[in-house]
Design goal:
Number of domains: 1
Strand content: over 45%
Largest sheet: 10 strands, antiparallel, barrel
CATH architecture: Beta Barrel
CATH topology: Lipocalin
Order of helices and strands: HEEEEEEEEEEEEE
Shape: elongated
Structural class: mainly beta
Low-confidence stretches: 1-9, 16-23
Distance between the termini: 40 Å
Length: 268
Amino acid sequence: MKNTALPVVLTTPLLMLLSLNVEAESQFSISPSLLHFKYTEFSTTGSTLNKETGWIPGIQLHLSKQFNQQWSSGVEVITYGGKVDYDGHTQSGQTHSTDTNETIFKLGAHLKTPVTEDTDLVFGAKYNKWKRDIYDNNGIFGLLEIYRWWEISAGITHEFGKTDTQSWHIEAHLLKTINPTIHVDLSRADYGKTDLNLGTDWGTRLQLSWDHKHSSNWQYGFNVFYEAWNFGRSNSKATTGGTYSGTFYEPYSETRHSGLILEITKTY
């Protein structure tokens, strides 16, 4: 199932950002990133079916504007890509190890409003697409899976240790996955393809950042973050389009990501 339209929660801050007065202060950031990818699937009895772990590089682009004393808005594009280790089992129980190529794309928007001089509330929405390409190895066919889902979030950010040239921020967000789906391509084994609906769940995102003001319109800094969410077990559905056919489902899974972001920001 493909998402073809942005929900109101994402389009509203996008339109607000695009319609701001050109004299309002804006910031553009480019941020090389390093993500520690960790994904685990579980059986109905709670035992581990497989896990994928490894470091993959990425880049983040962020544009924000302050349009009055109470509200600011921002949009961001995030992408990561690279190979990680896959360790698990085949359906017959045979131990299996290979590599998985992970490609992650995120498009998000947020609104921010202060509650005190040093503390802000943040509300966000994000579209996520994750391409999971499990490679063939040792005579065992791999498969391609494409996950798509929306995320809405609410959180708080607090500034501390502020001086004329630097400051620290700590953030905590609660997030909810919306309409997660998965496209499964088993054509390498000639079993065709199918689309499944995943179960939704809650998650969290934590971040600690440091910013240094280099000049009146340039600053740099770094962020360390941790984020976690789960997908519930999907429905079961038969594949179509292959010589063979079978009924498949996606098991319950947990995603636990952490990483480092180096940020360079220009103020206009």
